[in-house]
Backbone:
């Protein structure tokens, strides 16, 4: 049964006629595996639709997945039935497991049914602010799908794209740029703010995303920066013009640092194993780099030629275009383009093209010698192409023209028709350029008519003699005489040329050839071929003066002996570089649908400050920020800015880190994180296999964070309006909705150094709640310096840290200058060893040293982790007894209600919300930063504001202190 | 991006199709068949074919055309590279990528394609992630599946896609921890008839088979990293470390993978390990020709040449050959005019030779060209460039792995031109 299509079909039928849902999963999967081959073979399995759709709600993940495949394929044809499945996906979108949320969105967005567009839109928006980067990536993937289904959603989708572009994870970057390219490639303004981030993330993005990002950034750079080869290009133009305009004020070109950033960050990708990535970088360098730097791509491109022949084909096409403009780049690799007899013809022809482009005075002799060997190949198309190539070399390099011509003349005696015909054609073209000097070759060719039998070649020779009969006045009539003799035995194409020759000779030398011409025309008059008869009649009327001859005969000479322009022998790849290299349009030399034109460099650079990501958490700005706290979706602005800082910081510190690594390698017992790992920002799920746990804890229960001088709460997160809308559309399900998992954006700032004690320098810090990328076991502390003095502060750095044993500090890089009135933020990492002990150190300027200390509230010693309800219960069950602390409390009036509780708890401690079936209970989970011990918090609310707070934590001291803090947060 | 994929076999049947967006009729392949007919050889079908509404981008592997249909601008290499990745995945899963294997495993193929692309954009192409999603078929599993009715789809949710080391699956466990590295070099050369080298290049790869528990962090260092002129890495290799110290530092994927491919430039002197002397003469007016071919080792650093295979395309005029090999077997196909001689191992004391006569077509003129000779060979336990691995260290895990490194040299595109250079054109400069 398994092997025949009929069998499959019968089996499926059975399923269709099931009245009840199939009883066992086994049946379903069997049915599934039966349907799929039908789809794969292009058979229509759509009549199974209702039966399959029924299974969409199946709990089993594998069956679910397979039903999805089927659904997506047939939904467009069976729209009504497809709608039946939608509710299942909507439920899936709220699943606590990020993978299920992602896959539900993936399928939902793949169902091409217009009626569900609003639902899709909501789902995408929701997923775009999901906590899991994987779900956000899926959201980015869904955008082009929705756009192709309903282009009217463009504006809404652009908003989502804008938001996702701000995302900091490498997982999302590639997908969202892809969405950007499909939906709104013209909105280049959306890139400004994200440009530097994209450049920095690039190396860690997955391969396919890299290609898309690099291509987009090439276009971006063409609109934003100045041409680095401006002066050279100008010089070239000027040379062509008169010298008068040569004295032009030439501004010294200075490359925008952002331009440099792009070039620097893409260069390592030339080492990628993925040919598409290498090509993308190559085209970026070709279009954007200064002339002197383009050379680096040649080596990588030559390497790609070792790859599959399809890859070679595309690479060679691009190399051919590049080699016209930047010949010097590939000259060292000349031999890599030598042709092997085993290459497919299309590759041979392209290599030949490249070799021809690379030919110059110095290497022409080697190239010509190589070409000669090619002429003897068995592959006739290739031989023809080689002869053409020799012709082109001869036109381009004057010194070898004679050699080539002689060589080609030798080829005229070749046995192969094609070789001869092609040689004659090429010789004809070459002679047309300077016929005066080559009358001897024409004479030689005239002699060849006795031997050469290839009609095409004979015809070409005859044309040549006719055209330049003035240069061979003696031979031409003789050739005509011989031809007249053999006229009747010639091929048609040759006969036509004999008539042509006769006519031209009659016009120039009628005395000698009058009779011959008459004879030829008479022969032609009775030829079997009507083309020849027609031609003869036409020519006779035109050239032989009679009484009746019309006005045309006066112009006969002009008609026949007009100066014909010499054919231009140039590369078919010339000027192809106006298409972006590496693109489909370039390959086809025709604009493909959806191709984005590569803009010309601007005359003057647009404002580079648009790419600055401003830091605006200065004390002065706080008020304005709180005032304009508009509903903002997802993470608050302060967070994202924060990230940018740490981004640039981490890239610097990485290098130091790696140096340390090598030194301490022997000491290291574990090293899970690598540079890539550190740079990515997946805060959840990833369980640390960190085995090194520090046991030295010096905890002081008395130390409470009581030195908080000024507490400022930044803009509170506002529930986006659409979330409420969604509640109206879909009644809330027992499962908690993802919006509550969004980490709170509230950040408290603490004072480190007051303006007065600091003599004008005030320093504040806050716990940014971001993972500290150089070391995941450190708490990231953002420090903000404001210089309100009148003079600038120099060389701000940390010195002489006095730390409790086990504590570590990762200092921020020294700030060289802080001008008066300016504010700057840096990030440093502190490993507090899971204790609230203060970290004491000296903050130094060029003149003074200040003793300062940073003391963390217990809530900042942890980081959020993502858990499902079941995991939470399981973990809680393991942390009972001594590890559980319960306290009863009465909620403050304003604090009643789920939302308020969540907000207060997440403000007090860096925890994430755990989904929960009951709306009376809020659960949170996190782990301590240093040792990774679990911290579980649950708040059960009862009537009249009574509540019970439970904290489960292995570290009892932390637990006790956390209870205190949360208690305080909820009651005050 | 990629709209649909059609798999076409050598007889021109579409035996599998997959659509990622709305369905494209298979009649679009007619344009492909047209181009196929125009092309003289299978590998001469242009990889990119424009049609009125679509563009077809195809690759040919294992005598199967993988034809991708796209509708708008996309870098052609992007599609080509992806299609090759698909083939590699199939090969990884089924051992071979043939029509029969694909048909036998059509469900797995379909599931793989579904996971590899989302709406035409690559989603999961790392083999470690895919294997977590869809288990490769084995005989045992097929039997179990048939009995229990279960499938190849992974039971657990794949967490690999979320990982920051997406190329490595989590929770790897082995009882024997081992890491093998094969340094394989291929030498490409064109040799003149006189024996002088026209071009010679060494291309190498390091293929690894790593079966280590947990999350090992490996470093591999070379004795002479300067030899490597141009390198390309698996994404797991930390580029900065290489730039700074010339050390390969990486968390390896689980199983087989290509760690590195490199190029040793032709500027460095390449020692050609084999020489060929051949003399093929056709006498004017006679229907007989003489054929003589001798080969021997040269600069092999004491290692023996193995699996030597000579092949040559004789001129069309040759009807048949009557040759006598001193060792091995030879074969001449009178239809394709392909001469192949399986020499085997070369004994330096007794050099192998192939001598005899050829009969030419009556009346055919003397072929004006000596045929090109292609040579294949292997040298075990030696990398021709002299590249040597210094040491391999592991961090992050406590156990002691078993480490092995193997070297091999192969002939890539190695040919001796039999062209008569005496007739070169008179070059004035």
Residues:
């Amino acid at each position: 049964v398994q092997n025949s299509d009929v069998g499959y079909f019968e089996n499926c039928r059975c399923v269709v006629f099931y009245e009840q849902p199939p009883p066992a999963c086994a049946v379903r999967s069997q049915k599934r595996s039966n349907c799929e081959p039908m789809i794969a073979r292009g058979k229509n399995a759509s009549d199974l639709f209702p039966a399959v759709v029924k299974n969409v709600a199946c709990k089993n993940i594998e069956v679910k997945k397979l039903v999805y495949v089927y659904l997506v394929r047939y939904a467009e044809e069976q729209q009504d039935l497809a709608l039946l499945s939608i509710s299942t996906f909507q439920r899936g979108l709220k699943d606590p497991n990020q993978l299920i949320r992602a896959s539900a969105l993936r399928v939902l967005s793949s169902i091409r049914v217009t009626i569900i567009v609003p639902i899709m839109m909501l789902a995408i928006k929701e997923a775009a602010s999901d906590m899991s980067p994987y779900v956000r990536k899926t959201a980015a993937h869904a955008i082009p799908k929705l756009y192709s289904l309903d282009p009217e959603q463009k504006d809404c989708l652009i908003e989502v794209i804008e938001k996702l572009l701000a995302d900091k994870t490498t997982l999302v970057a590639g997908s969202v740029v892809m969405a950007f390219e499909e939906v709104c490639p013209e909105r280049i303004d959306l890139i400004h703010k994200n440009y530097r981030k994209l450049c920095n993330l690039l190396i860690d993005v997955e391969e396919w995303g890299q290609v898309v990002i690099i291509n987009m950034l090439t276009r971006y750079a063409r609109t934003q920066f100045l041409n680095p080869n401006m002066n050279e290009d100008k010089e070239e133009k000027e040379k062509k013009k008169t010298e008068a305009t040569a004295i032009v004020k030439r501004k010294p070109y200075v490359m925008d640092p952002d331009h440099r950033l792009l070039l620097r960050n893409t260069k390592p990708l030339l080492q990628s194993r993925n040919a598409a990535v290498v090509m993308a970088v190559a085209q970026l360098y070709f279009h954007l780099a200064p002339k002197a730097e383009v050379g680096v791509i040649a080596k990588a491109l030559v390497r790609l030629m070792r790859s599959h022949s399809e890859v070679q084909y595309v690479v060679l096409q691009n190399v051919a275009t590049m080699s016209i403009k930047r010949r010097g780049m590939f000259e060292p690799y000349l031999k890599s383009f030598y042709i092997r007899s085993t290459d497919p013809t299309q590759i041979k022809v392209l290599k030949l093209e490249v070799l021809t482009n690379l030919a110059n005075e110095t290497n022409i002799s080697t190239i010509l010698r190589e070409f000669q060997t090619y002429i003897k190949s068995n592959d006739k198309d290739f031989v023809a192409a080689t002869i053409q190539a020799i012709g082109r070399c001869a036109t381009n390099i004057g010194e070898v023209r004679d050699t080539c011509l002689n060589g080609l003349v030798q080829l005229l005696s070749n046995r192969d028709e094609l070789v001869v015909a092609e040689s004659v054609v090429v010789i004809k073209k070459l002679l047309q350029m300077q016929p005066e000097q080559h009358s001897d070759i024409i004479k030689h060719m005239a002699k060849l008519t006795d031997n050469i039998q290839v009609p095409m070649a004979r015809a070409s020779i005859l044309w040549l003699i006719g055209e330049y009969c003035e240069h061979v006045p003696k031979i031409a009539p003789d050739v005509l005489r011989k031809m007249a003799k053999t006229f009747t035995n010639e091929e048609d194409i040759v006969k036509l040329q004999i008539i042509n020759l006769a006519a031209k000779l009659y016009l120039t030398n009628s005395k000698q050839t009058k009779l011959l011409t008459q004879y030829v025309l008479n022969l032609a008059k009775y030829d079997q071929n009507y083309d020849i008869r027609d031609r003869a009649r036409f020519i006779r009327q035109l050239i032989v003066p009679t009484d009746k001859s019309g006005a045309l005969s006066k112009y006969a000479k002009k008609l026949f002996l007009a100066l014909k322009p010499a054919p231009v022998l140039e590369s078919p790849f010339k000027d192809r570089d106006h298409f972006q290299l590496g693109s489909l349009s370039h390959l086809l030399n025709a604009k493909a649908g959806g191709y984005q034109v590569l803009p010309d460099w601007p005359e003057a650079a647009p404002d580079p400050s648009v790419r600055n990501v401003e830091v605006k958490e200065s004390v002065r700005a706080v008020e304005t920020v709180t005032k304009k706290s508009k509903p903002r979706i997802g993470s608050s602005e302060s967070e994202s800015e924060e990230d940018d800082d740490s981004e640039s910081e981490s890239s610097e510190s990485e290098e130091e880190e790696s140096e340390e690594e090598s030194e301490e390698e022997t000491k290291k017992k574990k090293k899970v994180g690598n540079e890539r790992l550190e740079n990515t920002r997946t805060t959840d799920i990833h369980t640390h296999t960190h085995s090194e746990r520090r046991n030295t804890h010096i905890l002081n229960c008395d130390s409470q964070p009581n030195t908080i001088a000024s507490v400022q709460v930044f803009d509170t997160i506002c529930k986006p309006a659409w979330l409420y809308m969604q509640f109206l559309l879909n009644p809330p399900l027992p499962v908690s909705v993802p919006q509550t998992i969004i980490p709170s954006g509230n950040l408290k700032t603490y004072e480190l150094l007051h303006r007065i004690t600091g003599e004008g320098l005030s320093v504040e810090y806050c716990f940014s709640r971001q993972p500290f990328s150089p070391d995941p076991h450190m708490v990231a502390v953002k420090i903000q310096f404001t210089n309100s003095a009148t003079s600038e502060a120099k060389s701000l750095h940390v010195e002489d840290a006095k730390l409790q044993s086990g504590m570590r500090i990762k200092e921020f890089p020294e700030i060289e200058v802080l001008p008066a009135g300016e504010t700057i933020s840096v990030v440093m990492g502190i490993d507090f060893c899971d204790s609230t002990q203060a970290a004491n150190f000296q903050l130094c300027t060029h003149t003074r040293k200040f003793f300062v200390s940073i003391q963390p509230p217990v809530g900042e010693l942890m980081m959020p982790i993502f858990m499902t309800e079941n995991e939470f219960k399981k973990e809680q069950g393991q942390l009972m007894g001594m590890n559980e602390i319960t306290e009863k409390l009465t909620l403050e009036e304003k604090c009643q209600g789920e939302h308020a509780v969540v907000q207060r708890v997440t403000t007090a401690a860096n925890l994430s919300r755990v989904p929960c079936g009951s709306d009376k209970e809020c659960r949170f989970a996190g782990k301590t930063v240093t040792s990774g011990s679990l911290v579980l918090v649950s708040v059960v609310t009862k009537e009249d504001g009574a509540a019970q707070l439970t904290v489960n934590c292995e570290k009892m001291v932390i637990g006790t202190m956390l209870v205190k803090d949360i208690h305080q947060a909820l009651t005050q | 991006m990629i709209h649909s994929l059609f798999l076409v076999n050598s007889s021109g049947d579409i035996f599998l199709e997959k659509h990622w967006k709305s369905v494209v009729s298979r009649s679009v392949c007619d344009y492909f068949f047209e181009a196929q007919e125009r092309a003289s050889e299978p590998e001469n079908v242009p990889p990119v074919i424009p049609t009125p509404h679509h563009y077809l981008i195809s690759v040919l592997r294992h005598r199967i055309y993988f034809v991708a249909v796209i509708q708008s601008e996309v870098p052609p290499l992007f599609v080509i590279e992806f299609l090759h990745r698909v083939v590699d995945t199939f090969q990884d899963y089924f051992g071979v990528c043939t029509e029969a294997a694909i048909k036998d495993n059509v469900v797995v193929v379909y599931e793989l394609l579904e996971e590899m692309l989302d709406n035409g954009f690559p989603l999961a192409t790392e083999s470690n992630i895919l294997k977590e999603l869809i288990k490769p078929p084995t005989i045992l599993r097929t039997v179990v599946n048939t009995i229990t009715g279960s499938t190849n789809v992974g039971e657990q949710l794949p967490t690999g896609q979320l990982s920051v080391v997406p190329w490595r699956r989590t929770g790897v466990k082995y009882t024997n921890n081992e890491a093998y590295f094969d340094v394989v070099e291929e030498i490409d050369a064109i040799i003149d008839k006189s024996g002088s080298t026209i071009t010679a290049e060494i291309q190498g790869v390091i293929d690894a088979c790593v079966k280590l528990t947990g999350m090992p962090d490996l470093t591999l260092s070379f004795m002479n990293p300067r030899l490597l002129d141009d390198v390309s890495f698996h994404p797991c290799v930390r580029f900065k470390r290489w730039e700074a110290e010339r050390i390969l530092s990486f968390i390896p994927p689980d199983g087989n993978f290509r760690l590195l491919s490199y190029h040793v430039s032709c500027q460095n002197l390449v020692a050609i390990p084999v020489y060929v002397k051949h003399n093929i003469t056709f006498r004017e007016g006679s229907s007989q020709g003489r054929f003589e071919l001798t080969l021997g080792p040269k600069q092999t650093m004491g290692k023996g040449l193995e699996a030597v295979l000579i092949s040559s395309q004789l001129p069309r005029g040759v009807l048949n050959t009557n040759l006598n090999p001193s060792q091995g077997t030879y074969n001449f196909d009178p239809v394709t005019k392909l001469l192949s001689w399986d020499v085997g191992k070369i004994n330096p004391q007794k050099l192998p030779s192939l001598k005899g006569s050829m009969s030419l077509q009556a009346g055919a003129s003397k072929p004006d060209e000596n045929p090109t000779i292609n040579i294949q060979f292997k040298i075990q336990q030696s990398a021709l460039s002299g590249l040597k691995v210094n040491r391999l260290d592991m961090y992050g895990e406590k156990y002691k792995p078993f480490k092995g490194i193997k070297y091999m040299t192969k002939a890539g595109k190695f040919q001796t031109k039999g062209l008569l250079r005496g007739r070169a054109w008179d070059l004035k400069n």
The radius of gyration of chain B is 26 Å.
